[in-house]
Amino acid sequence: MTPDMVVGLMAESIKITLLVAAPMLIVGLVVGVLISLFQAVTQIQEMTLVFVPKIVAVLAVLVFALPWMMSMMITFTQNIFANIPAYIK
Fold first, then answer.
1. CA dihedral 24, 27, 30, 33 (to 10 degrees)
2. Would you put residue 43 in left (φ > 0), alpha (ψ -120 to 50) or beta?
3. C-alpha distances in Å from residue 38, one per residue of 24, 34, 41, 44, 50
4. At 71, is the pLDDT very low, low, confident or very high (cuts 50, 70, 90)?
């Protein structure tokens, strides 16, 4: 296994990780900003107000995006297993 193959495999792994995590992180960020904006406008300074909507939104996105996420991870894993002979050389 050459250093180029290792770097390519690591880059692909990081790319897949970011793609799989991005929908939940983006929704969590957007909901957090909207709740913070709401708190600033209404001057409600309750720290726990952010948690429940953010958890519900992230969970909803997880349920919605799970088939796509699993498809990406399964495809990546199948490619890893299919290329094991190339990694051994």
1. -60
2. left
3. 21, 6, 5, 8, 10
4. very high
